[in-house]
Specification:
By secondary structure, the chain is mainly alpha-helical. The chain is built from 2 helices and no strands. The chain has helices at about 5-10, 15-110. The chain starts with a helix and ends in a 10-residue tail after the last helix.
């Protein structure tokens, strides 16, 4: 059936029940379109919320990785600082021992004595 025939048929309706059925159908179509639009808005907002959650988790993971990297760097710095401290203390002790050895040598020399060194 062509559109003109269909249109003519729908406009010349004298049956009230058919008119009410068509009216209900139009109202249902409007309601369905309204619900489809609302569902579209909800889906769009859900997608936006999912992206926001994903971004937050990404930021948390990035911060965790950065913290882990900084922690390992600090750990390395502490290890190097400990080694440096040991080297400085050894040098200071070596200097102290050399000074004491020099003092003992001078005291022994003043007494006419010397340290004994075994020759190989």
């Amino acid at each position: 059936m062509s559109e003109a025939t269909s249109y003519r048929f729908e406009n010349n309706i004298e049956n009230k029940s058919l008119q009410r059925a068509l009216h209900r159908q139009k109202e249902r179509i409007k309601y369905d379109e309204l619900m489809a639009a609302r569902e579209g808005i909800v889906k769009n907002e859900l997608l936006i919320n999912q992206k926001a959650v994903w971004t937050e988790k990404l930021e948390e993971a990035s911060a965790h990785r950065r913290l882990k990297t900084e922690k390992s760097a600090v750990k390395g710095e502490i290890a190097i600082a400990g080694k440096t401290l040991i080297a400085v203390r050894r040098a200071a002790l070596r200097q102290l021992i050399d000074q004491e050895y020099g003092q003992f040598e001078e005291e022994l020399r003043a007494q006419g004595k010397a340290f004994y060194f075994k020759r190989d």
